[in-house]
Design brief:
Its EC number is 3.2.1.-. This protein is α/β, with parallel strands linked by helices and 727 residues long. It has 20 helices and 31 strands. The protein has three domains: 128 residues, Sandwich (Immunoglobulin-like); 308 residues, Glycosidases (TIM Barrel, Alpha-Beta Barrel); 134 residues, Immunoglobulin-like. Helix 14 crosses helix 15 and helix 17 packs parallel to helix 18.
Length: 727
């Protein structure tokens, strides 16, 4: 059927303002926001980009151009041409013959790869085409979302490609794809670890920066988005099936009670600054989509993009059209794609507004945050902020609204420095252990507001954190100038790889200390994917442009890796078995009003309480944290932290006659299971140097049961491990 614009009809306002392509029974309805354009043309193609024709939209209502085109069917593709003035000083980038990607595209027929000559000379060949999607008929097979609460979230950060690209147990065609993540081998590994949330690094369509392309590199991480709703086709076995494959991945993870959250980049786009390419937003309404400096008279200086992101531009969520796009993208991912939440890259930028028409400042009362609160589907989701950007007043840790969690870099730095032996951090470490209430105010913020981590995608991997004192980023071709200079790491005597058994043993124990600190602390724990396999980037702490096996997870089934995987699994299951570890409720810290409340005591090795001066005493390098339910039948725990180089014998708190202390975690052991120290239930416990020991009060009659459970953890290569501690 030939393409034909339907004759003028009285379309409803709801339909005309539904941006993007909407397939109807009698054609496809298109609506494009371009208030200053003089004309809008839609160019149509087959999926393989054979031209089908062009249609000029002839109706406009306010800033919306619209029309219904007969003859368009599902899987046909299109691009937009916006004509008008090309006048950057006025914020106008219209140009006849230049094709643009629809900001509301929900699928692309191919990835976008920057090619300067094509960009300048052959726009039709350069720009990928938006795909017209048919009606959603995906079979969710009755699988529902896990409906996970924040207090049960244990996050595993993964890159879709990097996680499975080198896994030889997965069919080659599925490695590095959405379906690779959905493969039973991958899911079995996640269940063995005990994590409950997979956080995917950006999966929205993105483009590598031109300067990287010139160097023969690419943006592997994907933090340079072109579209907010279209999946990156690179992670699908077929671009035609990307949406179905992504939904399949979500369904299978949900089937196994694992939630999925997306790392979203709503702070900037791949169009860069003034000299950057015109790909989508710039060519339709640059004045509203981006933030600009202000002149003395308060007007915008369209020749000076505000760059609070360090990426050339800042997406201006203070404008109606930008906020609308972000909000529709979030609704799309939550409802149609069934994801469970978001981690917002450089979230401060998303919360910036022109407070007095001049200053582009962060406010926790921004319209974006109000929208998240008012939209029930969003408010119930996991919302995690990276609480900074690179602009003025860009560090906002602890200042996001209630209901949000925030990446706590103070936890990261304090814990790293503490375990590498920096003095004077006993009190700081204790503060981080208890939810960083110096940053997240009691009563107004949940104790799970702090997202606790020691490694993230940006920075050293866990293996490199204990193997390098300095960054080694030469492969990025920036003369080692990129990446953070301060690594808060320690190599234990040799920079990088070594065969020294003593150094290797120290490194393994330090990794266990760091992971244990994350998983026993109050707050939401985060683990970087690949750390369980001792993944190394050989000292590169900014591997964003390394799309190769330097960044991929190596699935090496060594004894050391199996021990570390078992150790993480032990910690995750210990955490999930405990109300105290998941969501501590104290009398003076009752964000949640519940019937239960707990008692906290800090003790020295002789059993006496820590005094104020003890926290600053350089001779004291350890403490015992006691947390117990005020009900004598409830939970009681001891967490003994020993930063020192000597063994310490700790006197334990007394317990009722029918109870005993059972050691269940010891980081001095290769798999974390207590073996060298007695579990006889007495009131003393030896603690190894530079280690953490966790004890739980149990009923004496359950001693054999718990011991058998701990023995079971020692077994390797299990795929269906589901042991839970007796409560």
């Amino acid at each position: 059927m030939a393409l034909k614009l339907k004759e003028k009809q009285n379309y409803s306002k709801a339909l005309t303002s539904t941006l993007g392509a909407t397939l109807l029974d009698d054609g496809c309805f298109f609506s494009v926001w371009a208030p200053l354009a003089t004309s809008i043309i839609i160019h149509f193609y087959t999926f393989e980009e054979e031209p089908l024709g062009s249609i000029k939209l002839v109706e406009r209502r306010g800033g919306f151009w619209f029309g219904c085109v007969e003859g368009v069917k599902a899987e046909d593709c299109y691009a937009i041409e916006a004509q008008g003035e090309d006048k950057p000083e006025a914020g106008l980038y219209f140009k006849a013959g230049r094709l643009l990607v629809d900001p509301y595209a929900k699928a692309l027929n191919r990835p976008i790869i920057y090619n300067e000559s094509l960009y300048k000379e052959n726009s039709a060949a350069f720009i990928p085409k938006a795909v017209v999607l048919g009606r959603d008929d995906f079979d969710w097979d009755g699988v529902k979302k896990p409906d996970l609460e924040r207090n049960s979230a244990i996050i595993y950060e993964a890159h879709v490609k990097g996680m499975t690209k080198l896994n030889k147990e997965i069919p080659p065609s599925l490695r590095g794809t959405y379906l690779g993540l959905a493969h039973p081998v991958t899911i079995a590994h996640l269940k063995r670890l005990g994590v409950t949330v997979v956080q995917l690094m950006p999966i929205a369509a993105s483009m590598s920066e031109p300067f990287l392309v010139q160097r023969g590199l690419s943006n592997y991480w994907g933090y340079n988005p072109l579209c907010f709703m279209a999946l990156d086709p690179r992670y699908a076995t077929s671009a035609r099936n990307a949406v179905t494959e992504f939904k399949t991945m979500v369904r299978e993870l949900h089937r196994n009670k694992i939630a999925v959250i997306l790392d979203v980049v709503y702070n900037h786009t791949a169009e860069g600054g003034l000299d950057g390419p015109v790909l989508s937003y710039k060519g339709l309404d640059a004045k509203r989509y981006y933030a600009y400096a202000t002149k003395e008279d308060g007007s915008r200086d369209f020749l000076q993009y505000l760059n609070v992101t360090g990426c050339g531009n800042s997406f201006n969520v203070d404008s109606n059209i930008s906020l609308r796009l972000v909000s529709e993208a979030m609704r799309y991912w939550i409802t149609e794609m069934q994801v469970d939440g978001f981690r917002f890259d450089l979230a401060v930028t998303v919360g910036r507004e022109y407070s007095d028409s001049r200053n582009y400042r962060f406010t926790r009362h921004a319209a974006f945050f109000k929208y998240c609160f008012c939209e029930q589907e969003i408010d119930r989701a996991l919302l995690i902020a990276e609480p900074w950007d690179v602009g003025w007043d860009g560090y906002q840790l602890g200042r996001f609204p209630a209901g949000w969690s925030e990446q706590n870099d103070k936890f990261r730095d304090s814990v790293r420095c503490f375990w590498r032996g920096d003095p004077g951090l006993l009190g700081v470490f204790a503060t981080r252990l208890m939810g960083s209430r110096d940053n997240f105010a009691k009563r107004t913020r949940s104790i799970n507001a702090s997202l606790n981590y020691v490694t993230y995608h940006d920075g050293f991997s866990l293996e490199d954190l204990v193997s390098y004192n300095s960054k080694h980023n030469e492969l990025n071709l920036e003369a080692n100038r990129d990446g953070a200079n301060e690594t808060t790491s320690y190599n234990f005597g040799v920079e990088g790889k070594t065969t020294d058994p003593d150094i290797l043993k120290k490194r393994r124990q330090m990794k266990r200390n760091l992971l244990a600190s994350v998983l026993i602390s109050q707050g939401m724990p985060h683990i970087l994917g690949g750390d369980e396999f001792s993944r190394t980037q050989h000292g590169n702490n900014n591997a964003y442009c390394q799309d190769n096996d330097l960044s991929y997870t190596h699935w090496e089934r060594t004894a050391e890796n199996d021990d570390l995987i078992d150790f993480i699994g032990l910690l995750c299951r210990v955490r999930l078995s405990s109300v105290i570890l998941k969501d501590l409720n104290l009398d003076d810290d009752n964000f949640h009003l519940r019937a239960d409340s707990f008692l906290v005591r800090w003790r020295k090795s002789d059993g006496h309480l820590m005094e104020s001066e003890d926290w600053n005493n350089p001779q004291i390098k350890s403490f015992l944290l006691y947390i117990g339910d005020r009900d004598s039948q409830g939970e009681r725990w001891c967490f003994i932290i020993n930063q020192g180089a000597n063994e310490i014998n700790y006197k334990l708190p007394s317990v009722p006659d029918n109870k005993m202390w059972m050691a269940i975690v010891d980081t001095s052991e290769e798999n974390g299971v207590p073996q060298r120290y007695s579990n006889a239930g007495g009131l003393e416990s030896w603690v190894a140097p530079n280690s953490i020991k966790v004890l739980r009060m149990i009923e004496t009659k359950n001693r054999e049961f718990v011991s058998e459970g701990l023995e079971y953890i020692r077994h390797r290569n299990r795929r269906d491990f589901d042991y839970k501690f007796h409560r």
